[in-house]
Task: structure prediction
Amino acid sequence: MVNRFADARPIVMGVLVRDCRMLVAPVTSSLTKEIYYRCIGGGIEFQERGEDALRREFYEETGLHVRIEEYLGLLENIFTFDARKVHELILYYRVSIPDSEYQPEYVHNEDGSIGKAFWIPVEDVKKGRLKMYPGGPLPYL
Result:
C-alpha cells in the first residue's frame, strides 16, 4: 500500500463506552496476523472541524449518530504498520449514542472494507488482554 500522507495526518476518534464495554473495530496486521482494536473514527478533511469529522466518520462507518460529550485530548502517533510509516495527530472525544441505536454489533464499513464493530470489555483493554491500536484511549478509560 502506498502511503498517501507524506506529512502528519489529522484524524479523530470517538471513545464510546457503555456498560463497561467500548465500541471498537478489529484491525489485523497483514504481516504478523496480530489483531488490534481501534476506536471508530478517521481522517479530518481540509477545513472540517474535528467534531464534525467524528460525526461523519461514525455515520459513514457504522450508521450511528453520535453525540459529542467532551474533548479528551490529542495523541501524536508515529509508527510503522505493515511496513508502512505513519504519522498521525489524533483528536479523542468521548461520545454517546441514544439507547434506541444500541446493538451488540454493527456493520463496519471502512473505505469499502466491510467488517464488524462490536463491544469489548474496558477491563480487558486496561489489563492488556486486548490491544488497542494506537493505545491513546487508555488514559481516558
Remarks:
- The first strand starts at residue 9 and ends at 18.
- Residues 3 and 123 are 34 Å apart (CA to CA).
